[in-house]
Write a structure and sequence with these properties.
Helix content: 40-55%
Shape: globular
Number of helices: 7
Strand content: 5-15%
Number of strands: 5
Largest sheet: 5 strands, parallel
Order of helices and strands: EHEHHEHHEHEH
Structural class: alpha/beta
Radius of gyration: 17 Å
Amino acid sequence: MTPAPVTAAVRIGIVGTYATGKSTLMRRIEMELRALGTSALRVSGLGKCAAFLGLPKMTRHTALSTEWIITAGVAQELAATVRAEVVLADCAAPAALAYYTAALEHRGEKAPPETMNRLQTLVTALSTPYDLLLATVLDPDEPLTGAQGHDHNPDFRQLVDDHTHKILGTLELGHVLVTNDDTSRGDAIRLALTMAGAA
């Protein structure tokens, strides 16, 4: 008996600073996919897992916590590919690196070059499998809401946004910008559905 061909799951990731609607957008994409009969799983909650383990995050991010979040997130994404047609990564691989470099600038520190090279190589390699990478753009005029568990620090929030887009450019990671308006979010949803073959 010839085994059925294995179809690789579509992987969609999102990055951006906190409280820019990333989780809300990914939940919307997940609901739309399921409504169209496409199985989807969302990988999220990595920050809470890191905090439970005692790993520093946000302004206290370290190279160790960054590497853990990157690899733990991708491990969960890979595990989800055997159970769903579409995997949605709420914290795609580049996100943790952006938080780390933002935290370093916030603290006035610099990472050793070998550490940065290692983390950048890791992020580049683990970002390649994403079929679609979305990147939110911070609207500084948007009130900070829905950011439970995050430091209410507008300066750090802006730093993470700056470092997110800098890293995407430096590592030449293809991505689609999502701005703070319904048209942009709608376009992102439609693109995700098309990428998943569910449109």
